[in-house]
Amino acid sequence: MAAIETRGPHVRTDRVHSDIIDKGVALQNRLSTLCALEYMKSHSIDAAVIQRVLLSPAQRRKTP
Asked: Model confidence over 3-43: pLDDT tens digits?
């Protein structure tokens, strides 16, 4: 896996997971939260991360 530079405790360090989460957020915006949830679950994103990302947008980590 390709790591990206860290810039603090809330920066994503794994490019693959970052891309999956970004696509999940885009799905949520275009289609629905359920679609985004299923997409991220199908890519083995941790349930706590999915919950934070989809239900608490203000707590999303910043992308570099």
From this structure: 444 444 555 568 888 899 999 999 999 999 999 999 999 99
Q: How many Å apart are CA 64 and CA 34, to the nearest integer?
A: 27
Closest CA to 53 of 24, 32, 16: 24
Per domain, the residue ranges of the chain are: 15-56
Assess contact for 18 and 3: CB atoms under 8 A: no
Cα 39 to the center of its chain, rounded Å: 11
User: Quick count: other Cβ atoms within 10 Å of Cβ 1?
Assistant: 7
Enter the pTM of the model. Answer: 0.71
